[in-house]
Amino acid sequence: MDQRGIVLVVSVSIFKDEEVLMIKENKPTAIGKWNFPSGHIEYGEDILSAALREVKEETGYEVKFISTTGVYNFQSSTGDQVILFHFTAKLSGGSLNLTEEEIIDCKWIKLNELAEMEDKELREVGVVRQITNNLQRGNLFPISMFHDQLLSTVGGASITKDSNI
């Protein structure tokens, strides 16, 4: 049996008005591909802390979580099994700052425009399409589905629930 890695990932749909933020990646396995701000959960890190950290590192923004579209399990283009936790959020602070070499561009886009993007433009197209479909259909779940301990404080920042996108 092939023992490739299991990779834990968080990703976040950040909403402003009626648009969602997409980033264009410059990683060796995803050059020029659009994706939601996302990244690996570090060893010992809690899921919501990882999501806040990745958003801040990749965009410079601070966010307030609204909901989750769920957990996705798929095989990546590199052959790893990925378990991805996807959240929705709205801006709560910070300013756009694309300092990472891995992110070369970003844009605010309406969900119907995201749904119409060509497969070759998207990273891990299957999961991006599934998340987009869930967002369009309103298949959202409360953050409270995560253990209450995760909701009290994350990295010194208070995690609050908000149902308005």
Automatic annotation (TrEMBL):
List the Gene3D superfamilies hit by this protein, alphabetically: Nucleoside Triphosphate Pyrophosphohydrolase
Residue span, Nudix hydrolase domain: 5-131
What the entry lists under SUPFAM superfamilies is as follows: Nudix
Enumerate the GO terms in the molecular function aspect. hydrolase activity
What CDD domains does the entry give? NUDIX_Hydrolase
Q: Which InterPro entries match?
A: Nudix_hydrolase, NUDIX_hydrolase-like_dom_sf, NUDIX_hydrolase_CS, NUDIX_hydrolase_dom
The source's superkingdom equals Bacteria
Matches recorded under Pfam families:
NUDIX (PF00293)
Name listed for the protein in its UniProt record: DNA mismatch repair protein MutT
